[in-house]
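Tokens in:
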């Protein structure tokens, strides 16, 4: 889950402004909720887009303490109605793994059928992707680096460092999504038994639900892909395969054997040819998505038995 909270005590959760409170029953080590952009200069608009008067956004966690990470360029801005905008990769569904991207409408529909009248499920405002650098900045809060080890010295927010120990939201595309529930009054549910209805979305597609985890680690909004559905049952190799699919579709990778889940020089050079960078960044993924569409709609891989189906 992507919510920012201390590992003990109460913690904040809310919508884009992250101003409400929630009980401490969520698991530690599931990541931390981010808010992309400065509160004074970032306002939500329709369809998970954010109006940004600056070229570069910063990251905040819901405790209102700013993340120091500013190493990752946001997705490329677009001019709409004379306003500079960009998709928020923390919440825009184009950054979901194609299997989740394809299933999301059906998941939301399955959850909707279980909810009382007037309730609505949707993806969380920080419920999709978070960069490893963003994750690490949150991991460092409440810790000091002593004798080669990060030691707790105060309130911590996550056990995932984004590099050695990744959150499912750190993968690009993300292999997890967080679903929140909007009450009839338009307010996002803070906590309550209705969150158990989110399980229906996971069950409908054979995905894993965070509410099934052991006591003390449960994360009710969290739905993730099981390893058994991924390429070689590997998060890292499956992540690379999704990038290679775009590059193969674009003609930058020319042999099916190059769809191997290994991010080597051939794949990096192919990405540079197509997107102008050798790095797997949110901006590069957005470029590929905008140029070629969603992977689940491609038929290039239908005859390749080793490539898992995404829908």
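Residues out:
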């Amino acid at each position: 889950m992507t919510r920012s909270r201390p590992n003990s005590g109460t913690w904040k959760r809310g919508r884009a402004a992250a101003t409400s409170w929630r009980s401490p029953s969520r698991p530690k080590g599931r990541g931390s909720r981010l808010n992309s952009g400065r509160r004074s200069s970032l306002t939500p608009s329709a369809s998970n887009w954010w109006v940004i008067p600056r070229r570069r956004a910063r990251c905040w966690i819901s405790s209102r303490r700013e993340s120091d990470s500013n190493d990752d360029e946001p997705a490329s801005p677009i001019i709409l109605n004379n306003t500079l905008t960009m998709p928020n990769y923390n919440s825009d569904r184009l950054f979901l793994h194609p299997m989740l991207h394809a299933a999301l409408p059906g998941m939301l529909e399955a959850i909707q059928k279980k909810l009382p009248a007037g309730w609505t499920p949707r993806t969380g405002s920080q419920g999709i992707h978070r960069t490893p650098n963003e994750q690490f900045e949150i991991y460092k809060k409440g810790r000091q680096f002593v004798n080669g080890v990060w030691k707790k010295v105060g309130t911590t927010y996550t056990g995932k460092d984004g590099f050695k120990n990744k959150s499912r939201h750190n993968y690009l595309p993300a292999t997890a999504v967080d679903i929140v529930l909007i009450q009839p009054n338009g307010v996002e549910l803070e906590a309550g038994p209705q969150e158990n209805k989110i399980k229906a979305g996971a069950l409908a597609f054979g995905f894993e639900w965070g509410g099934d985890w052991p006591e003390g680690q449960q994360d009710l909004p969290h739905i993730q892909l099981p390893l058994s559905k991924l390429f070689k049952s590997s998060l890292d190799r499956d992540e690379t395969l999704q990038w290679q699919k775009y590059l193969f579709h674009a003609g930058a990778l020319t042999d099916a054997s190059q769809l191997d889940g290994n991010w080597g020089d051939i794949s990096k050079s192919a990405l540079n040819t197509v997107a102008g960078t050798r790095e797997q960044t949110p901006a590069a993924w957005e470029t590929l998505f905008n140029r070629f569409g969603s992977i689940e709609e491609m038929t290039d891989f239908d005859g390749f038995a080793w490539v898992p189906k995404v829908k």
